[in-house]
């Protein structure tokens, strides 16, 4: 797990875990609304920058009373989205019955109940994200089909732009 | 800078984000910091980030002030995001935008020039070459590239709004090679009006004539060479639009002259 906090939010602990070969996604999905996590299908994630950029945005929205969803966890998922449609955000980034790679975001003050997830935890880094993500899907959901560059770094930067400006 | 602004910013950023003021404009204050707002420290070692803050103006009604700040912060951020998508155009990366509070985080560009020549904006760069070789091939190459950047901006129907030689930052790409980036889109806009484009070109021309008058004619020629090239690469439509922009540039220049004769 990658545990960190952001400079402007030192009291908020962020834990990020990446799982491959997940075999019980549909079971987790059925109770995801009750779980104190944001559970993201990692196909739609190409970089750490993308994830942290969304978490930063969610923390800012929360601190200044601008949350658009029920909790900080759901706001993290919503913040990844390029559109203001919450249903679409869940469809594009949320866990699906056939999800095999999951990114689990937990924002806590202390450890909470364990996640009964069956799969292999792998190191969370840019390689593991960019090599396994679905670039075509990412281009589609961020409306970057026309974007000239194929470099993950450049695409990630364009994605950050969308995340920072969504709905504003 | 007013103590009130500094204390406001330091409250917002928290002690975890040390910052330094580098510029104060009419509308925004610019700071730098070595702390990335959200990337883990090991991924952002030794880098510098720009924080641009629009403080509240006490003379405005609070709710109008909030909505203006939000609007302007967003408009600059949106512009950076859109320009980033244009092939060949070089602008700094937007890192974060908190429109409610008026903060934008941007990638810091440029470096200090050798021999105490100052920060690597176009103005200082030209000063650096003036005493030895104002027509150095590097100067020529760089000014053509500056012209290309402005050409790309205008061809795609965007305008800068404050195109001075301080708002063009040179980023070193090799020992003898510099890539110009356009910065500060606080007054920028989407615009297909030739008037706005003509004014951009006129503002830059004035900046160069006033600081480098002896060499200005050659510098302008190189700039316009790069600028025109972008339009000419776009066929008959490019040639047509180029003519319109150049005609308007000439008109703006004439107006400017009249005004300075009277005033
Ligand atoms: N991205 C940047 N990289 C380097 N310097 C910058 C950047 N943005 C602003 N500055 C500096 O801050 C000054 C004022 O910024 P601005 O208000 O954006 O014009 C500029 O003239 C630059 O010297």
From TrEMBL, chain B:
Q: So what does this thing catalyse?
A: L-threonyl-[protein] + ATP = O-phospho-L-threonyl-[protein] + ADP + H(+); L-seryl-[protein] + ATP = O-phospho-L-seryl-[protein] + ADP + H(+)
Q: Belongs to which family?
A: Belongs to the protein kinase superfamily. BUD32 family.
What this protein is called in its record is: EKC/KEOPS complex subunit BUD32
Protein kinase domain boundaries: 16-263
Q: Which GO terms describe its molecular function?
A: ATP binding; hydrolase activity; protein serine/threonine kinase activity
Q: What is the lineage of its organism?
A: Eukaryota, Fungi, Dikarya, Ascomycota, Saccharomycotina
Family matches, as SUPFAM superfamilies: Protein kinase-like (PK-like) (SSF56112)
This entry's Enzyme Commission designation comes to 2.7.11.1
**UniProt keyword list:** Activator, ATP-binding, Chromosome, Cytoplasm, Hydrolase, Kinase, Nucleotide-binding, Nucleus, Phosphoprotein, Serine/threonine-protein kinase, Telomere, Transcription, Transcription regulation, Transferase, tRNA processing
PANTHER family (UniProt xref): EKC_KEOPS COMPLEX SUBUNIT TP53RK, NON-SPECIFIC SERINE/THREONINE PROTEIN KINASE
The subunit field of the Swiss-Prot or TrEMBL record says: Component of the EKC/KEOPS complex composed of at least BUD32, CGI121, GON7, KAE1 and PCC1; the whole complex dimerizes.
GO BP annotations, alphabetical order: tRNA processing; tRNA threonylcarbamoyladenosine metabolic process
The compartments listed are: Chromosome, Telomere; Cytoplasm; Nucleus
Gene3D superfamilies from the xrefs?
Phosphorylase Kinase, domain 1, Transferase(Phosphotransferase) domain 1
Which Gene Ontology cellular component terms are annotated? chromosome, telomeric region; cytosol; EKC/KEOPS complex; nucleus
Report the source organism. Zygosaccharomyces rouxii (strain ATCC 2623 / CBS 732 / NBRC 1130 / NCYC 568 / NRRL Y-229)
Q: Report the InterPro entries cross-referenced here.
A: Bud32, Kinase-like_dom_sf, Prot_kinase_dom, Tyr_kinase_AS
